[in-house]
Amino acid sequence: MMMNICRNRLVVKIGTSAFTNKAGQNDLLAFGRLALIISDIQNMGCQVILVSSGTIAAGDNKEISV
Fold it and tell me: How far apart are the first and last CA of the chain?
């Protein structure tokens, strides 16, 4: 069996504090900075896999308009 190993793969684990400010609210600037960094890495030919527990906190902070 032949295995194809990707040497251009980066797994990044980011915690809740990377996506929230001191008040526990979503930090949209942090989301934007992360998106730019991941985009740059992908443009260099590397596959990026993002793993985060921060998405739970982001969903908890979602405002619901009725």
Answer: 56
